[in-house]
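Milestone M4 deliverable, item 7.
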Amino acid sequence: MNDTSVIDLRNVRKTYKGRIEALRGVDLAVGAGEVFGLLGPNGAGKSTIVKIMMTVVRASAGDGTVLGKPLGDKGALSRVGYLPEHHRFPAYLTGRQVVDFFGALAGMPRAERRARTEAMLDLVRMRDWADRRLGTYSKGMQQRVGLAASLVNDPRLVVLDEPTDGVDPVGRKEIRDLLLRLRGEGRTIFVNSHLLSEIEMVCDRVAIMVQGRVWAQGTIDDLTRSSKRFEITMRGAAPEWAVGLGALREDGASTTVALQVADAADAQPVIDRLRAHGVVIERAVPVRESLEDLFIRAVTDPSSGGTLNPGALRDRPSAPPPPIEVAS
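Output delivered:
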């Protein structure tokens, strides 16, 4: 992106044994102080991207920077908080010991990390369980402790791989609120998740990966711009002159007309004319494609209309759906 990019990946490729192409030239840019969501079906390469950023695995080709430093720079990694998708903390440790241990791994002085440990346990509401062994925790409680461990080193960048996995609805809301709070503190949040509704509520920008490539990235508003319309629901049947305005949908005693306009001001002349003809308007709302709709479009094979096969590609890949155009 520019000098404010916290993550900047360029043409990153990863091929595993058996000529399995997990990543096929990924370009990804994440700006400072934003919540960025990485989406994609199983096997699209999302976790591989995260592991390359965290140096868990090495890229086969390409380069990039994290916090302005080349991938793998230890100084940059010390300012990153990371929650893996399938973390496995020793079951004999307590929640407090796990968080404190991660602070020690980050090189924090003892007094600082112990104070920070207590603060993070409070933040994720696990103080009352802090001295119980992880083997007694539920999956959601383990996830909360993992989140506290990812924040103990006061990171500038927080990388979360499926952070709400196993968390109940109340916990998911608390995590959403926490992400927004962290953004308000000027931190950058990188979230890899399958929960599209969660992503749509908190992310400033998203990227959708399909079969090892980035299909599209940008704000949700930009990515769904072409689908924007204005729907007017009126009581009874639409006047004859309104039939040609847009797609009509009848629902019992009401009729809805969908105008292909993106702004409410552009719909006002039609609303005024309907009222002038004595039509009772029950509802007038802007509508756009949801993130789920966009996701389904991304994983649909344009040639067959079916869903693309999951997983990484082997040997010669089939062509993914063409990326959508996003206005700059």
